[in-house]
Structures
1.
Amino acid sequence: MPELPEVETIRLGLERELVGRTVVSVDWRGSAFRKASPQPLNQLAGRQVLHIDRHAKFLFVRLDNGATWLVHLGMTGKLLFHGLGDAEAPHTHLRLELDDGRELRYVDPRRFGMLRLYGPGQLVEDVDHYGPDALDPAFTATVLADAMRTSRAPMKAFLLDQTKVAGLGNIYVCEALWRAGISPRRKACNVAKAKVVPLYQQILAVLQDALADGGTSFNDYVNTIGDPGTFVSNLAVFQREGAPCLRPGCPGQVTRIVQSGRSTFYCSRCQR
DNA sequence: ATGATCTCCTGAGCGC
DNA sequence: TGCGCTCAGGAGATCA
């Protein structure tokens, strides 16, 4: 569900509302997730939150004892602030009672997310194989060009590959390729050199535009106070199958194809 | 080693 | 109303 702009929106919410708070008590339901936590989540009890980092779609909640609580929302994960007595949504897996009389809850119907508590000094390994975050200065046009030169994967798969550049998902890959006028089917190594810098610029632009709108919401994405993002009205191709291409002067229409088992939306007329 | 496919899980939407 | 099918914003494991 959430990609970089949505996760960054949540990070900003946590920075405002969670940093400085202490966890009074933990209600962990022990639900089975795809990856178990290295340390029991009950050990969040008594910890104060110092700050929140993000790499790609992972959140790093830094705690006062040197521990790190890693959160990944998968497709349907939500982190939400609630009052103590608020009714509980289905698929609530974790409730953290905070010292300001509120609760932070993790809700995730599909349980594709990850909640992983690393002890003090324990190294977080989940992003070891990841490439640079798409909005980090370490991600440059040169880095992108070097990775593209050696990959025969179609551009769609290439940009979804978190080891190349981290943080993009299905929506923003489709949107960035449309903005740059590159076919999602074109092999990365076959993209004209002259198109690499524009692609780099459009990746940053679409992420920043979406972030400014609080992300994209279809069904269930909401930020930490339950508000949806509004970028859906600015999507050019994603979930617009059959609609006219929005590029000025382009007579094409948006097509949906399946690549590596996932939907790709693009205009075959102006994305070459 | 790279790229494609399968898998985890639940819910929504659709056609019949 | 209900059944069965397809699809969903992610990513790790497995297979060719």
2.
Amino acid sequence: MSQPKYKRVADEITQRINDGVYAPKTILPDQKSLAKEFGVSRLTVKKALDGLERAGLIYKQSGLGTVVLGTIPIKSEQDAVADCFTGLQKQLGKENVTSKIIKFNVQFPDEELQKYLDIKANEPVYEIIRLRVYKGQPYVLEHTFMPIKLIPNLSEKILEDSIYTYIHKKLKLKFGGAYRKIKAVKADKYDIEYLEAKKDDPLLELEQIVWLNNGQTFEYSRSRNRYDTRNYVVLDTNNF
Amino acid sequence: MSQPKYKRVADEITQRINDGVYAPKTILPDQKSLAKEFGVSRLTVKKALDGLERAGLIYKQSGLGTVVLGTIPIKSEQDAVADCFTGLQKQLGKENVTSKIIKFNVQFPDEELQKYLDIKANEPVYEIIRLRVYKGQPYVLEHTFMPIKLIPNLSEKILEDSIYTYIHKKLKLKFGGAYRKIKAVKADKYDIEYLEAKKDDPLLELEQIVWLNNGQTFEYSRSRNRYDTRNYVVLDTNNF
DNA sequence: CAGTGGTCTAGACCACCAC
DNA sequence: TGGTGGTCTAGACCACTGC
């Protein structure tokens, strides 16, 4: 009811690919047939397939048809998708993830942070350092800044659970987008202490700016993990 | 003539944003007006805006309008976009990039490579190691494998110029998509020798599988750069 | 309430591919 | 030459926003 038709069509086709009804390297039924089968217009089928193509499940070619792509051989469990946000709890299972609060305070932003969060010097921000623990192992060390005016009443209790759940469910704010930068960095004393990294180990850092659907920036953060525990992946599908 | 209308509309709107005609944080004219102005249907305008939204220039909200987003404060010149392929020459300027061939030979693939490239043990592959040099500085060390049957007649001359130009222009093959994995790694002897990395410096590695528009895999590669010279970025726009 | 963007349709023409 | 997906239109209804 609430889901748009193209989404339901996409989900059904995804299901069939996963079930092997549409096998890898074979050609899908053409858009007109699918439209007829699902009782929708061809444009709606096309929209569904556009999404699946961006997600890397299929490849469309004019004049030929739509091909089911196979599974990707370098894909591993350590991979985190870089261009599609999912909280750690959702990604790895709520029961596998705990959080340890290392720092939680309030301060005025320095010049850099004012620029990053697009706020004035007199608008206070939270500074949060959290260690995310996965199945008992230190996993990601997060250093986060958020403007207080956008995210009121944050508490340690919320930080121990999920910030994003609080923002979405309680504050009813909607996520708009994020700019993420992935870099390799040297371990500092925090990484060595909390992530149990060795002195000369490389670390993978994700620096990001996140904004709400109204365009207001609500987070600047840097997250680090050990080089041997987590990678980031992206899918490049040549479509506009 | 050859460009679709939605692309021309998107380009024109992009131009206006860059020129400041549509300033950051202001609301764009509504889709109906734009459709009228450009002499196209509203759906065509929407398609153009969808693309600009995925590219991070604007944000649309039903019931409100379309907002122009500002420039991103953490964006820097070291950033390479991770989910949209552009060759190094195109990205940094043909005149700034040269290539040094370190290894170029032919071999049978081992089991892992057979899996990665989806080929049999008796189908030979090229092994290519190239150092890409940017403005005289060692920049990226590429280790590439390609099946010979897909990319015939490769030569050192082509490698010194651009493999992708050869594939596109001469072989008339079209790029389909890529799965990319970004990780932090320790420097090995090649990195120290060619990238002039220090012994304990971290390196950023991009491991990727690339396929053609017919679904055939034509490249498996690992590219490394020094941690202080290049980062990867992605844009997460919450849209299907 | 009026105005916005989101979705959806039926029908049309085109470029491209394989035969 | 027939079939594929890509593009485009005009018109319609919906959910959501702000007033």
